[in-house]
Every structure is written in C-alpha cells, then in structure tokens.
C-alpha cells in the first residue's frame, strides 16, 4: 500500500477539522469550516471566484493547455455509451469509466500517460433535480488528468496531483486561500482508494482519487499492483463560479437558454434563481421531502407564498431542463444510442420524453426537432462529431416525437381500465408501483395519468419519480457468469490452427459432471464450443474401441467440456482417444457466421454508421442478426443490403484472422471490435474482412468470402423498439430457401391456373372480389339479424317486472352478441339470453336489470356449465360456450330459472 505523504506544507496548507461536519481538511488559512456545503454557503453568486469569466468551452481550453504545458497528452473524449467496452453499465458516468476495466487492470495500455481529457458524462440518478437546484445536470463535462502508475513506470502520485490542482486553480485566478482539500474515500467500478474533495466558496470543484484497491464481492478490498490517479474536475461548476451567474445552466449553455426564452416569452428572475441555488447548495437533495423543503425555504426567504414562488419558478426551471436534456440527448444519439424500451435506449427515451413534457408545460408550438436544432447549432461548434451526426439525430428525434404522441393516445385506455379496476376494488388512490408500471410498460407519463384521474381519484407523483425509474435501469445486469468451475489446463483449440481439420487425437485429462451430464476434458480438440451466437460442433469420439456421440461442447475458463452420450468411468482419464466432428454442420455454421459479418457490414453501408450489432444466432438452415436501428427496414433497403452482401461474397476476399493483445487490437481498430459483444481476456482473436468489416470474434469462419456462397435475406422483423432483426440463409441453405420460395410460387400459380408473373395481379383481383363478397355477406347477415330481432321483439316473458327474451336461434357468435345488445341498449328488453346449435351462449342486461340485481355474467357462467364449458363477462354483456351443444335448450332454461330467483 502506498502511504499518503504530505505535500501541503510546501504549498502552505495546514490540517484543520471542520467544526460543523467533523471532516479533516487542508487550508492555507485558519478556518472553522471545510469549505463545502452545507458547512459553507455559496459565496460566488454575484461575486465570481476568478479574476475573469470563462464559459464552458473556454475553461476546457485553459484546462487542456495548462496540463499540456505540464507534460500531459490530450485525449479526445470517449463515447458516452460505455457498453462499447464494458458489460456492467450502459453510460459513462465519470472519466474513469473510460479506463475501467481494461486499462486500470493493465490488460490494455492507456492511450497516453499521463492523460488530459474533458469527458462528457451522464448521470440520471438525480434527473428530477435538474433545473430545480441550479447545479444538477444530466450531462456534465468531467475534466481529468489521469495517470496509470506501474511498478516499472511510476509517473506521479499524491504530491504532483495536489500541486497540479492547486496551480491550475491559481492559474485561472482563484485565490488559493479560498480553496480547501477535504479528506475522504472513493469507491466505484470495482476499485477504491483515498481521495480529496476540492472546494471553493461552498461548492466542490474537483475530486482527486488515488485508486489502490480492488473491491471484492464480499466488500473487502485487495491492493492492486497498478496505482491510478483518477481526478475529476467539474468544468461546468468551474465556469459557473467564474461567472457568478444565478445557475450553472446560465453559465454553461446561455445561448440555448436565451433562444428558448425568446421562443417562450419566459423571463428569468435572477433573484429567485440565485436564492434557489444558494439554498439548494446548503441541502443534500436526495428525496421527495428535500425538494419540497427547498421550495418552501426559497419561497419563505423571498417573502412569497409557495404558490407564488412555483408560478414564477417553474417556467424558468422548464427552460433549464429543456436546455440540459437536449444537450444530453445530442451526445447520447450521436454516440450510437437508439431510444427504445430497454437498456441504454430506455434511458435515452426517458430523457427525450421528459423534454417533450416540459415543452408542453410551456405550451411551446415548436417541435422537439426545432428545439434540438438550436442545441445542435450550439454544440457542433465545439464537437464536430455532433454536426456529422446531425441528420441521424434529427431523424430519430422526429420519429420519437411521433411515437410519443401515438403511445399516449393508445395508453389512455389502459389508464382508464387501471383506474376503473382500482375503484371497483374500493381504492381511491393509485399505488406508486402501478404508476411506475404504466410508465415502464406502456410509456404513459405520470402527469397524463394525473389529468385522466379526475377529481374523485388521487394520483400522487413523487418529485423524484424519474430518478427512481432511471435508477432501476442504469446498470446492465444481463451478463450473469456461470458459477461452475473447472481446474484443468487450458484446452488447445485446433480449429483455430486448421479450420478444415475434421479428426484429431487427444489425451483425456478429466471426466466431470455438469447439469447431470458426463463431460470429457481433452488436452486438445477440434470441437468448437458454443459461444458468440454459434452452436457447438457435434460429432463422436472413439474410446478404447467404443464410439460415443458428442452432442454438445462448451467452454468454461478456457477449458472445453465435451458432453458425452453414454456412460464412461474415471478409468478413461489418461487414455488416448480419437475425435471426429460433423463436417457438414461445421461448414454450414461457418458460412452463416462469416455471412453475418458480411450482412452487418452491408447494413452499415446502406442504413448508416449508427448500425451496431445487438445480438446474433447462427443455425443450420438460417441465421439472424439483430441491429440497432430506429425504424423499420424497408424492402428496398433489404434488397440493397442483400445485393451488397453478395457482392462481398463474389469478391472472394481472403479473411485476415489474427490474435492480438487487447491494447494492440484497440489501437488498430477501436471499439468497433466489440460490436459482437465484449470479449474477455488479454488476447483477442480479430476477424478482419479487408475493406469490409472487422470484429473481435471467437467463432469459426470460412477462409474466403467466396466460400460463403449465395446470401438470401428471408425476412426482417422488429424485435423491440430500436432493434431490427434480419433473418438470412447462406450457402446451400440459401439455395434450399430459394427453392422453397420457388415451389410456393409455382404451387400458388397452379392453383390460380396462371403464369408466375401473372400471380400478383390475379391475387389482387381475387382478393378484391372476395372482399366485396364478404361485405355483401355481412350486409345480408345484418339484414337477417334485423329480421330475426323484429320477429323476437314481441316474444318475451315478463319476470319480476323485467322483459326477458330467451331463444335458441341460428346465428353466429357475433350476431348473437349484436342482437342481444341491440335489445338491451334500445329498450326492447331488459334481459336477453340467446344460444345457437354450435354451443355458444350470450347474455345481455340493461341498466334497469342490473339495478334489480341481475348479474348476467354469473348467470351465463352457470348456463355454460350445463354445456360442459364455461363463460363470463361484464354485467352488461356476457358470453360462454361448451362442447355439449345438444343441451342448449337446457342451458337457456337454466339461465331463465336463475333470472327468476334474482
């Protein structure tokens, strides 16, 4: 463990203890408090802390130039989509996320050392506080000077880190006597270590972390050989204190805020916003009660009622929220996130729909795309990649706004049913879990649910509603690791050395049982184990003259387990065996796997660079690949993808398949390597189709694209919002699919007795004629039903003062329902029970009958029981059916007797 040394004496700092919170801190001047809120109030609003104002991008430039002058290398920002290189979180929440786990573990070299970077970071854990506290943002820029220290290359540690921090703040004109360094501890992403929180005038500006430990599953920690300096400077906050504006939003994206003010006519009251930020700075805004208390305190301090304060503050807050959220969305979508109902797409959609909500609160006539155009114009001056993605961003924004309107329209009926059900249960308030489910599962915004509830039903929306929702979706929990362990030498994988090797000799190293199945472990194998969307090889193994089937192979901890059909004893360990794979299966799966790479490359060319693989599965007759895409793929686009993929096949390109260290591979190809998923280990197998595609891939592949054979796209379907699936066949499987389609075409043409090219026109004519005839049949049925109803109008029994019609009648199910409701809705009868000879029975009741205690749903349920079936429904209309249709008269009479008893 590295012992923290004292640098503070050299810089004139002494250690003190905060009399308010008890924290130890360092300061150049004697003081009673630590310098952070709530121990110290904000002291910079209207009184800037620097000798000149900086906007966000000016402070980024000064930060970069200062650290470059101190020997640091600037590194361009990483994408905000962390799942490009890690499998535990979706979004980059801090600059260190970019370097975990590969760089911090030593498996990958850092892009430079030491590093300077300004990393856009996204945190939605306090999304409901954005716009309301003056400081919270969904997207913020974390400046960092990061150092990866190894035993043989130790660059700097605590002394230099603190010196750089001290001198940077002095460089931008902050009086260092106002700076404090508060001792603390940091943990995150599986690492931890001591840290200092650097504060000035009541606000934390930076955190200096010295990562020394790995956090173990049981909560304990283990020292790691690589020591990491992980600093995080809040560049938005630094810009804020340099300007002394009422809020950080005014300091960091004022041009966007100003244009939104012009569009809406909202005036920013600096007194209210400044007081709000000051009081918010004294509070740890974590839950509903905190936010409500904040609002009340601000109102009281300004001698306003809470209602007066909210009326003035909420439009201003909405302006800030829209400015913040559109900025967050710009980075999300530009970096490859497609709004959807799962994973990172869920988080993007949450931010997007909150933006629309606050636009509606301001009664903005502009579309979300109009507002996003303002944000993109501002951002693209500093981030050229945003400008390059502008068309893609605007396409998604426009489509998502349309989907949102459609979702709300469809969801209203679901909300109505939910409220009706709760009222029926005697409840007058909606539970929070139901409100969250309406948003999660059906996209219904809570404020719409409130509007629909009316005055006689309560829907309480907590102020931190979206924080709760986002918190449940921020981490990726889908990557569960197997708990099964084996302790054997790594299996030598022969299929990587010679793809065409079909047989092999090996030594049996062990026999284990997994999931109740015996599994053999060899020193070497040519059986490909299941993985990466590719099924395993199958085949057989010859042991002591006996042949055993191998139906499945899998790999655990670099050891291949060969599942075996039949019983073998431990005596087999140490013997020599001969294995043989099913070659036709291997080559077919390999064609599909290489074909998958060709199809995704073609899709990216046709649909755009945002295309990213979201999953794949190779089978013998077909393969599927899931792509991140924001709308349905058209037939024309499919045709282009299919044609381009086949062009790649005909070019007969030789595949370049090599093993690289992870850092070599990333340096050569970047994160596009991981489009098939995060690949573990220090060594990575890279499958490159020169000029076409490159991926980290462990699967078996043909050696030239020409061996894939023809590629035929069978269909496309939407798997979920934001994910399109392409189903295709390759090689002989493609020929089989073509012949199958051709046979369908020939048989269909023969049925209509026309040539193949006349089939579409003939089908259209027959369908049009069938539709016309169906409409005529429906019209005649309606007339017959009307005649039947007229004949039954006077055939009723009066039971307990109610007109009751009961009849066995020849009509289909829909006709029975229509006739029954026509009688009760139009006052021709109070209760109707009708059945047909197919065993279908229907009942209807008027409001008068219901008021007299008639429960037609229970009556029909009992009557259907006579038919040997069941039924049910509503108090106004019920239906049932049973297999004993010959008992229909008895069933109808049973219903009548039950009516008499009511």
Defining key terms:
31 strands, 26 helices, 902 residues, single chain, alpha+beta, 7-stranded antiparallel beta sheet, 9-stranded mixed beta sheet
Distance between the termini: 84 Å
Rg over C-alpha atoms, rounded to the nearest angstrom: 35 Å
Strand order of the largest sheet: 1-2-6-7-8-9-5-4-3
**The biggest beta sheet, please?**
9 strands, mixed
Query: Which spans of ≥5 residues are poorly predicted at pLDDT below 50?
Result: none
Explain how this protein is built.
With 902 residues, the chain is an alpha+beta fold. Helix content is 40%, strand content 22%. The chain is built from 26 helices and 31 strands. It has a nine-stranded mixed β-sheet with strand order 1-2-6-7-8-9-5-4-3. Strands 15-14-18-11-12-17-16 form a seven-stranded antiparallel β-sheet. The radius of gyration is 35 Å and the shape is globular. The model has no long low-confidence stretch (mean pLDDT 89).
What secondary-structure arrangement, pairings included, does this model have?
Blueprint: H1 8-11, E1 14-17, E2 24-27, H2 56-69, E3 73-74, E4 115-122, E5 139-149, H3 158-171, E6 179-188, E7 191-200, E8 203-215, E9 221-234, H4 235-243, H5 248-252, H6 254-264, H7 270-281, H8 288-301, H9 306-334, H10 343-361, H11 368-379, H12 384-388, H13 390-424, H14 432-442, H15 446-453, H16 465-471, E10 492-493, H17 494-497, E11 503-514, E12 517-522, E13 524-525, E14 539-543, E15 546-550, E16 552-556, E17 559-563, E18 576-581, H18 583-607, E19 613-618, E20 623-628, H19 635-650, E21 656-661, H20 662-669, E22 683-689, E23 693-696, E24 711-720, E25 723-730, H21 732-752, H22 759-792, E26 797-799, E27 802-808, H23 813-825, E28 831-835, E29 840-845, H24 847-851, H25 856-866, E30 870-873, E31 877-881, H26 888-901
Parallel strand pairs: 3-4, 10-13, 27-28
Antiparallel strand pairs: 1-2, 2-6, 4-5, 5-9, 6-7, 7-8, 8-9, 11-12, 11-18, 12-17, 14-15, 14-18, 16-17, 19-20, 20-25, 21-22, 22-23, 24-25, 26-27, 28-29, 29-31, 30-31
Helix pairs in contact: 2-4, 6-11, 7-8, 8-9, 9-10, 9-11, 10-13, 11-13, 13-15, 18-19, 22-23, 25-26
